[in-house]
Amino acid sequence: MLETNLEIPRQYRTEVKQPQIFRVLGQDGEPNEAYEIGYKPTEGELAKAYRWMVVGRTLDKYALMYHRMGKVRSTYGPHEGHEAADAGTALALRPEDWVAPHYRNLTLVIARGVPLEVIWAKFFAKSGDPDKGRNLTIEWGGFKKWRILSIGAPIGHQYVYAAGFAYALRYMKRDEVVAAYIGDGGTSTGGFHAGLNFAGVYKVPAAFFIYNNQYAISMPVARQTAVERLATKAAAYGIEGVSADGMDLLAVVKTAKWAVEKARRGEPALVEYVMYRFGPHTTADDPLTRYRDQKEVEEWRRWDPLARLERFLIRSGIYSESDVRTIWEEAEREVKEAAKAAEAMPDVPVEEAVRDVYSFVPKSLQEWLGEL
Amino acid sequence: MIANMAKAINMALHEEMARDERVVVLGEDVGRRGGVFLVTEGLYERFGPERVIDTPLNEGGILGFALGMAMAGLKPVAEIQFVDFIWTGADELLNHIAKLRYRSGGEYKAPLVVRAPVGSGVKSGLYHSQSPEAVFVHTPGLVVVMPSTPYNAKGLLKAAIRGDDPVVFLEPKILYRSPREEIPDGDYVVEIGKARVAREGDDVTVVAYGAMVHRALEAAEKAKASVEVVDLLTLNPMDVDAVLKSVSKTGRLVVAYDAPKTAGLGAEVAAVVAEKALDKLAAPVVRVAGPDVPQSPVAHDAIYAPTVERILKAIEKVMAY
Ligand SMILES: Cc1ncc(C[n+]2csc(CCOP(=O)(O)OP(=O)(O)O)c2C)c(N)n1
C-alpha cells in the first residue's frame, strides 16, 4: 500500500498558547517587577482589603468552630486561602456593580458590606437571615441589598445569568458591571460554557473569574480539563483571558481591575486565579485520608495570602507589627460579638415556610399551615 | 453480615463488577473519594480507573457518556451526587435514555443504572433534599426504583444492573447509615416490579416507599386500628395488583410520601385505586406528603416530610370516616 502523509499543515490548525501565571508578591511579601503593571491600589484600598481578609479568615475559623458545636445549621464550606481573590476582585468593583458569586466567596460577601450579624444569622438560620433559613450556609439566596445575585447549589448557572443580567444593564443604559465567580470544577458545567459564549457573542459588561483552587471535592483539576491553564478557555469564546496568582492580593487587584474596566467598555474578560483551598471541601469532607497529602497542603501554605500581604504592608510602612496585631484582635472581637447578637435572634417563624413560593400564598398552603 | 444501606449498595456494586466485566461505575468523586456518601468505597482500588471513572463536573456529560457506553454494550452505573443536580442532565435522561429503545424500533437499548440520593430530613436545604420521583415515573421508558432497607437495596440494585432497561435507582439518603439489617452471604436479587407487604393488617392500608416506609411502620405500631403497610419498592412499573389486593382487604387507604403533595406519586396511587377499586373503599383516600414548597428549607426541615404523628392522624381520620 502507498504510504500517505496524514499531516495537515500548521496554518490550517488552531494554536493555543498557555499563559504564564501573573504574580506580584513573593512568599516574603516583596513585590517583583510586575508591581509596575496595571492598576496600583492606594494605601487606603490596601488597608481596606487587608481588613476584609482578616475578618474573612476569622469568621471562617469561628464558623467551623461553631459548626462543630452544632450551632451552625447544615454543612459549612471553609474558605481559607480564598481571601485575597475575594478582596482583590471586590476592590476592583464600584459599589454599584453586581456580583454573581460562587458558594465559597465569604470575604467577597463581607467586602460587599453585608454585616457580620447578618451572615451569622444565616449560618444559624435565625430571623435576621435574608434567606429566611431556606438555604445552606454558603448559598447566597437573598442578598440583593448588597448587589449580590441569588445563587443556589447547582454549580454553573451563575455564569449564564450573569451574562443575561449584564446584557440588561447595558440595555437599560446603566454603567454597571457584573462580576461572576466559579470554581475549577464549575468550568466543566454547561452553565460555564453557555455563559461565556453568550457573553462573547453579545459583548456584555461582565467580568468572569475562575477560582482554580486545584480541587472539586476530591477531583484534581486535571479531571476537569486537559488544558494546562483554564484561562485559555476564553479563546474559544472570542474573549480575552488571563491567569494570575489568586493568593496574591496585588496580582488579583491588577488583573481584576483590567477585567472589570474592560467589561465596562463592553469587552467581557476571563481571569483564572490559581490558588488553593487549605481546608476540606465542606464539614462533611476529609481530604487527608482520601485524596491529598499533608505535604501538598504545607507546600501551598507558603503562599498564604494573608501572610504575604501582611509582610508587604509592614515592609512598605503602611502598617507596623502592632497595627497588624490590633486588626486581628478587633476582627476576633467583632466576629464573636456579631455571633452573640445573631444567636439571640428569634428563629424563623414556621409561617415563613409557605411564603415566597409564589407572589401569593395558595389555598393549599394555607390549609397545610392550618393542619400543622 | 449486618449492614446499613450504603454498605449493602456497595456490596452489590462490588459483586456485580466482579461478576460481569461490562459493568463500569462513573460519576463525580466515585473513585478515590469513594463517593460523597462512601457508597462506591473500595471499587477504585479493586477495579482500577478504567472501570471506576471519576468524571468532570457535568451531569449531562455523565448521563450522555453512560448512554453511549450502554449503546456500545457496556453496563454503566452512573452516580449523580445528589438527585437535585440531575437536571442539567435531564435532556439526556428524559429525552434520550428513556426513549432510545422506542425511537429506534427496538434496535438500540440503554441498559444502564442511574443512582442518586434523594429525600429530605438531613437539614440540607433546597438543593440537597428533593424527591423528583414523580417526574421520572411520568417518563415512559424509565424504570424507577426506591429501596427501603439494606436487604432490598442490594437485591434491587443487582437486578437493575442485570436488567435490560434504564433504571433510575433512588436512594433515600436518610437511610444510608440506619437502619441496619442482616444481609445473606450468597448472591440474591430482589425482583423489580414487585411491592412487598411490610406489615400485615386488616383495617387500613398505608402505601409508602423509601424512608416513609419506616415512619408508616412506626405509625402502624402506635395506631389503635390494624394497619397494613405496603412498600412499593418499584415506583415504575408500579405493582398495582399488590395495592389493590391490600385495599380490597382493608377498605381504607393512606398514601405517605416525602415530596410536594400536588401531582406526586400519591396522586397516582389514589387514582389507580379510584379507577379500579372505588367500590371497595369505605373512606376517602388521604395523602400525607410535603407541602408544595421547594423541598426542604433548612430552618423548617423537620416539618417537611410526613412524620409518624401525621401518618397516625391520617389513619385515625380514615378510621373515623
Ligand atoms: C451541578 C452540580 N453538580 C454537583 C454538585 C455537587 N458539588 C458541590 S461542590 C462540588 C465541587 C465543586 O468544585 P469547584 O467548582 O472547583 O469549587 P470549589 O469547591 O473548589 O470552590 C460538587 C461536585 C453541585 N453542587 N452542582
From TrEMBL, chain A:
Q: Which reaction does it catalyse?
A: a 2-oxocarboxylate + 2 oxidized [2Fe-2S]-[ferredoxin] + CoA = an acyl-CoA + 2 reduced [2Fe-2S]-[ferredoxin] + CO2 + H(+)
The GO biological-process annotations, alphabetized, read as: branched-chain amino acid catabolic process
EC number(s) recorded for this UniProt protein:
1.2.7.11
User: Where does the sequence pass through the membrane?
Assistant: none
EC class: oxidoreductase
Q: Which GO terms describe its molecular function?
A: 2-oxobutyrate synthase activity; oxidoreductase activity, acting on the aldehyde or oxo group of donors, disulfide as acceptor; pyruvate synthase activity
Q: Does the keyword section mention Membrane?
A: no
- Keyword presence, Oxidoreductase: yes
Fetch the Pfam families from UniProt.
E1_dh
Query: Dehydrogenase E1 component domain: which residues?
Result: 50-348
Keyword annotations from UniProtKB, A to Z = Oxidoreductase, Pyruvate
How it assembles, according to the record, is: Heterodimer composed of an alpha and a beta subunit.
Q: What is this protein called?
A: 2-oxoacid oxidoreductase (ferredoxin)
List the source organism: Thermoproteus uzoniensis (strain 768-20)
Automatic annotation (TrEMBL), chain B:
Q: Which GO terms describe its molecular function?
A: 2-oxobutyrate synthase activity; pyruvate synthase activity
User: Where does the secretion signal sit in this chain?
Assistant: none
Can you tell which superkingdom this protein's organism belongs to? Archaea
Task: Please tell me whether the keyword Oxidoreductase is annotated for this protein.
Answer: yes
The enzyme's E.C. designation: 1.2.7.11
Looking at its record, which EC class is this enzyme?
oxidoreductase
Q: Does the keyword Secreted apply?
A: no
Pfam families from the UniProt entry: Transket_pyr (PF02779), Transketolase_C (PF02780)
**Description of how the protein assembles with itself and partners:** Heterodimer composed of an alpha and a beta subunit.
Write down what this protein is called. Answer: 2-oxoacid oxidoreductase (ferredoxin)
The organism is Thermoproteus uzoniensis (strain 768-20)
Species classification = Archaea, Thermoproteota, Thermoprotei, Thermoproteales, Thermoproteaceae
